[in-house]
Each structure stands twice: as structure tokens, then as C-alpha cells.
Write a structure and sequence with these properties.
Cofactor: Mg(2+)
Keywords: Magnesium, Metal-binding
CATH class of the largest domain: Alpha Beta
Pfam families: RraA-like
Number of helices: 7
CATH superfamily of the largest domain: Ribonuclease E inhibitor RraA/RraA-like
InterPro entries: RraA/RraA-like, RraA/RraA-like_sf
GO molecular function, one term: metal ion binding
Number of strands: 13
Structural class: alpha/beta
CATH architecture of the largest domain: 3-Layer(bba) Sandwich
């Protein structure tokens, strides 16, 4: 089977990212499930800081393979073309740097200095299935950071940065450059770029309906017939609710 079409051939509607920024990862998970995508939630990671605004942006990828003494001495960082450093300096504004560490958090994939640089360059966020060092500084950033957890050892201990801008795996999920990454308190969803527009558009109505459902539950309405709305009266009440402008 061929790889998905290149990101540059799939333009995003101007409303796609703003709509997704108002959608939860739970909503997107359901919408992708309906389309047959059952493995789009990045496993084993969490936001370093709770309560941040949702993270959304196209994926910019960096892949690590296992380190070796001959390829990853401490002097490797002096190389001007070191892929980790190059990724930090080339990640586009508004993009999410997604790092494939083979779900190995026993060493860091980045630290607060590099993450600060990414924030200053306008990155939308960072996702890694590896560790993060200097985690207090990283967690204090305004830019959202999702990781497998704190890890003091430098990436050279376990991770050899090998390439940028290619398909990767992160937390067991396939990530192609340009896929749309959405992160919130539940974690991170990977939205195939060609589906991002329709998922974003459908999320608007789904979020609106679930806001109505929550109000109904809080006033004591039983869940059967309400969610999903199999009772015709549920749909009628929802239309009235929308007409009142409670959106």
C-alpha cells in the first residue's frame, strides 16, 4: 500500500485548526473510530503541565534509534548537523515536534533549553514517547509538552537521532509529517491530514450535542435514550436548546 499523500498536497481549510482547538481528544477519538481509525491515541504519555489550552498543529517528525558508543559520544552535540539540534532549528512555526523514542523513557529526548528554543521559535508543542530532562523548566513553559515522564540521562545515553521529516511511530501510533496533532488533558490524538477537515467540521456539532447532554444529565435525565439520542424527544429537546442559543 502507498504512503498517504504528501502534506503539501493536502491544504488545510482555514477553519480546521481553530475548530480542532475547541474539540476534545475524546471527541476526535470517537470521530476517528467511526472512520475505522482505532489506533490514533498516543500511548504512555501525558502533559507535563495540567490545565493548559489544547495543543493543535501539524506534525514535524524526528526519529531516534538505539544509541551506540561509536555514534553517540558526548561530543556528538558539537556537530552542526546533529539531527536533534537541526530539528529544533527547523521546526516550522505553529508545528508540533513529534519524537519517536521507541517508547523508551529511560533517557531524555530533549530538555528545557531546547524546548525553550522551540517555544521562542513559535512551535505549537512537543510530543515524545521518551523522557524529558530538566522537567521543572520544561513544565513551566507556555508551550505544551507531552512526554512519557521525567528522565535525567541525556538522549545520547539511549537515543541516536537519525532523521527528520519522515514517517515515525510515537507511542505506538503511525505519524506522517503534516498529520494534525491534538493534545489536551487526556493525551494526544494523531489525525490523518486528509481527514482533518471533515473531523474538525463534525466535531463542532458533536461538542455542542455533548454540552446539551451534560446539562440533561445534571438535571436528572436518564442516559438511556439520551446518549446516544435514540429517544425522538431527545432530539426535539436538543433543537429547542440550540434555538435558545445555549451553544
Amino acid at each position: 500500500m502507498p504512503n498517504p499523500a504528501a502534506a503539501e498536497t493536502i491544504p488545510l481549510h482555514p477553519l480546521t485548526l481553530p475548530r480542532l482547538a475547541k474539540a476534545s481528544t475524546a471527541t476526535v477519538a470517537t470521530l476517528l473510530y467511526k472512520r475505522g481509525y482505532h489506533n490514533a491515541f498516543v500511548q504512555g504519555i501525558a502533559p507535563l503541565t495540567a490545565g493548559r489550552a489544547p495543543m493543535v498543529g501539524p506534525a514535524f517528525t524526528l526519529r531516534y534509534i538505539p544509541a551506540r558508543p561509536d555514534t553517540d559520544p558526548i561530543g556528538a552535540f558539537r556537530e552542526p548537523d546533529h539531527p536533534q539540534r537541526v530539528a529544533v532549528e527547523t521546526c516550522p512555526e505553529g508545528a508540533v515536534l513529534v519524537m519517536d523514542c521507541r517508547q523508551d523513557a529511560s533517557a531524555a529526548s530533549a530538555g528545557s533549553i531546547l524546548l525553550t528554543r522551540l517555544q521562542l521559535r513559535g512551535a505549537a508543542g512537543v510530543v515524545t514517547d521518551g523522557g524529558i530532562r530538566d522537567v521543572a523548566g520544561a513544565a513551566a513553559l507556555e508551550m505544551p509538552v507531552f512526554a512519557a515522564g521525567p528522565s535525567a540521562p541525556t538522549n545520547l545515553t539511549k537515543h541516536h537521532a537519525i532523521d527528520i521529516g519522515l514517517p515515525i511511530a510515537c507511542g505506538g501510533v503511525a505519524v506522517y509529517p503534516g498529520d494534525i496533532i491534538l493534545g489536551d488533558g487526556d493525551g494526544v490524538m494523531v489525525i490523518p491530514r486528509h481527514l482533518a477537515g471533515e473531523v474538525a467540521a463534525e466535531s463542532v456539532g458533536m461538542e455542542r450535542f455533548e454540552a446539551f447532554v451534560l446539562e440533561e444529565v445534571l438535571r436528572g435525565v436518564p442516559i438511556i435514550g439520551l446518549y446516544p439520542p435514540t429517544d425522538p424527544d431527545t432530539k426535539a429537546r436538543f433543537e429547542v436548546w440550540q434555538a435558545r442559543g445555549e451553544v
